[in-house]
Amino acid sequence: MSMNVKKGDAVKVIAGVDKGKTGQVLAVDTKSQRVVLQGSDLKTVKCFVKPRNAQEKGGIIEREASINVSNVMIICPSCNSATRVAHNVSVDENGKTIKTRICKKCGASLDVTASKAAKTAKKAKKTATKAKKTTDVEEN
């Protein structure tokens, strides 16, 4: 089963001990349907670490605990609210299908790579029109 949460997403915890807190996804385990969140006030686990060689010290460390994916919701970067995820399938100019995640509330893209690609395409289009305008002015 695929998950709507990816590494690097900002999420809000909607159930459990940390309800209402926000954090960033550090790791996603699709097999067990769990995510590890980064946040100073989120749930941590104490673990014992063995020394790997004579120079290294062992001891008890604290690390982030994993949370079930059903207990988190993605925060939309444009409307800054926890939202459900919709999917949009489109075909680019090469005939390749692109599946993007979309906010159910505002309709903005949740994929960073897709939004970056759109921004770079807009910038390229603007620079092309500026170059065309300058060549038109120089020709006159």
Mean pLDDT rating: 83
Report low-confidence residues grouped into runs of 5 or more: none
Task: Report strand order across the widest sheet.
Answer: 6-3-2-1-7-8
What is the CATH architecture term of the largest domain?
Roll
Largest sheet: 6 strands, antiparallel
Q: Overview of this structure, please?
A:
- This protein has 1 helix and 10 strands, in the order ββββββββββα.
- The protein starts with 9 loop residues before the first strand and ends with a helix.
- The chain has 140 residues and is an alpha+beta fold.
- Helices cover 20% and strands 37% of the residues.
- It is elongated.
- It has a 6-stranded antiparallel β-sheet with strand order 6-3-2-1-7-8, with no helix packed on it. A two-stranded antiparallel ribbon has the order 4-5.
- The model has no long low-confidence stretch (mean pLDDT 83).
- It has 2 domains: 1-75, SH3 type barrels, CATH 2.30.30.30; 83-140, no CATH class.
Give the arrangement of secondary structure elements.
Layout: E1 10-13, E2 22-29, E3 34-38, E4 44-49, E5 59-64, E6 66-68, E7 72-75, E8 82-83, E9 85-91, E10 97-103, H1 112-139
Antiparallel strand pairs: 1-2, 1-7, 2-3, 3-6, 4-5, 7-8, 9-10
What is the structure about, briefly put?
With 140 residues, this protein is of the alpha+beta class. The chain has one helix at residues 112-139; strands at 10-13, 22-29, 34-38, 44-49, 59-64, 66-68, 72-75, 82-83, 85-91, 97-103. It is built from 1 helix and 10 strands; from the N terminus they run E-E-E-E-E-E-E-E-E-E-H.
